[in-house]
């Protein structure tokens, strides 16, 4: 995945677990679940990435940095936050308050998410209907994807104008002050003026 998660041994994606996980209150239970789901390799990757921050952040109470681990998305908090919050790299999100900054850190999509069953079912209620406030349901721009059939239909062809097949060549615009032939087209008297000028100069 684009975030570099260790999910080679994960049995399925998207990874959905039972609702009883929302009732976990001990970190020991959460660790056992992650090991059972073969997701503990991703946590070990987080442990291995822990290091000191470069720069002055060390003096500002943010000295250590680490990679992101799995994102656990739940429907109701019956203790799940207390169970998972002490595992490094884990992010906990309520399905009703999903955050794009947490789901795609740094603008890179592909975060490894672990869903509870009720949270996964609630996705359709939130994002499959118009019930969520300040959310516009995605609509298809085209109901019929056969574009060639639409363009060749008599209704469309009747409205369209006939193609212009006449070729218009670009004409080079010449400067009449430098080109005598063009000047004579614009001003036929220019020839007489030039001749008179030459004769006048010859007399002098």
Automatic annotation (TrEMBL):
The keyword rRNA-binding does not apply. It holds the Pfam family Ribos_L4_asso_C. GO terms for cellular component: ribonucleoprotein complex; ribosome. Residues 133-202 form the Large ribosomal subunit protein uL4 C-terminal domain. The keyword ATP-binding does not apply. InterPro entries: Ribos_uL4_C_dom (IPR025755), Ribosomal_uL4 (IPR002136), Ribosomal_uL4_dom_sf (IPR023574), Ribosomal_uL4_euk/arch (IPR045240). One of its GO terms (biological process) is translation. PANTHER family: 60S RIBOSOMAL PROTEIN L4. Belongs to the universal ribosomal protein uL4 family. This is 60S ribosomal protein L4.
